[in-house]
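Example record

One chain of 336 residues, shown exactly as stored in the release files.
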Amino acid sequence: MATIKDVARQANVSVTTVSHVVNKTRFVSEEGRNRVEQAIRELGYVPSAVARSLQRSATHTLGMLIPNSSNPYFAEIVRGIEDRCFGAGYNLLLCNTDDEPRRQGMVLQVLAERRVDGLIVVSSGEDPALPELLSGLRIPTVMVDREIDTLPCDLVETAHMQGALLAVQHLTALGHRRIACIGGPAGVATADQRAEGWRMALAGQGLPSAGLLQPGDFTSEGGYAAMHAILRQTPRPSAVFVANDLMAIGALCAAHECGVAVPDELSLVGFDDIELARFACPPLTTVAQPKQRIASMAVDMLLERIEGRRQDARKVVLQPELRVRASSAPYRGTPV
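Predicted structure tokens for this chain:
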């Protein structure tokens, strides 16, 4: 493989001149530039991206942390971010913390050593050390989906509480009065906000919430187990709001195993509108997060910081929408 010295020798110029031509860091005469470019073509020389990044103090690479790479919601967000990065001339390094807050620090250190120009972070629950660690790295950062109150950095997220309100108001409008909730992991802001939206919607209708919140973990297995627990309740709820679609798919499976027909005997509403939601049986009514807008805004906000076009922290909260499909239907039991 040809080196920069080979190019300099063939073009009869110095290595420094070749570097200036490749990196466009200083004026080189047209004759000298033509000789260097011809030598590069003839030798098939490929400049080192690492070397160029060291010279420019920039790598055109962004780092991203997600809590769970097996969750389709995060996969869809990552896809949108990758597309936006590619269009802007940036690469993306993706790291999965596997829902373990303590792994975040180690992964962030790895990304810092890779000299990423900026970070997109979806945090993994409560980690008291995370704000101090991110501040100490001094790397432009955008939080996605999950806010950290003590960290003055950019944030783009959906109005999670409002989304839960939409879901439960849809169920109450269908005549349901005993509405359970399968929540997310304790200490995760999105889970707490969605559960609070469920409570607020019930309180607004004078409906009970005590004993109707079943903890989950944002996985299909967690939704499956939580639904089995709900179906053992007496009296049984006529509807369930599930804090994410992955758990809702597990809940659908549990209802089918127990011989409970959805939506004839039990209505179900999820949250996220992952692609699989349309292909569940029955297709899942869910609260849609604007995933493409989240992805685009996260990258654009980060590039504003990297390029020095903005200094102050910015918070963007996007509005969710209800997607009504076949998993929810009017209450068909005895009026309450």
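Notes: The longest strand covers residues 61-66.
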